[in-house]
């Protein structure tokens, strides 16, 4: 079975509209944004499928005990339900699959990347009333319960295993070689979580040039976020040219050159040269 294929243009445009609307909402819905990213990836995920995924998260939350107690009790309850009875966890092979970054597939397969499994943990626990949030450790996303002075960390990729202080230190040192700093343990903003999910998808596509379609929709969703680096426009332009959309790519290259011309004239001139070269491909 191959990786999911994006939807038809009309549906893709509607998904982007809904994504942009939700990304700019006063309180962005993390699960919905991840599901809309899934709809941009997978033409088989329609509105009914998105609703069904949200309902599944509700149902999982309903299986948790009522207010089990402090942060550690919540972490243990989530591990028993999601990691134990429901079998959510990850493995090294999950890093090779696009589905591991798509929430609806993670709910179906019970497998995914650390950040997507953490989204499941956060969304289920939040619905049950837990003091829960994502924690964006460098290289490995986990989940936190409780205030800073009582914080308990859990690793959904490892079935929700509760982490000791040394465990978290080892995760960070293994990913970066640097020590764990207290600033790394704060709650992750939902929009930052979505950007990290999209960046993982872009990284997956980068090493698979034949899947430039995936790279393109992931970049386009990043561009719909309230704030994003200007260079993403250059990346989108390059992808359009790579995919044979020379005129659209040239227009985007010129637009990016206009953005950077006041701060970096040599780069702007180089990019305009790339735009001319793209237009020449039309002849």
Automatic annotation (TrEMBL):
Question: Which domain of life does this protein belong to?
Answer: Bacteria
Please give the name of this protein: Tetratricopeptide repeat protein
Q: Which organism is it from?
A: Streptomyces fagopyri
Return the InterPro entries for the record. SirB1_N
Family per similarity comment = Belongs to the UPF0162 family.
Domain Protein SirB1 N-terminal, by residue range, is 54-199
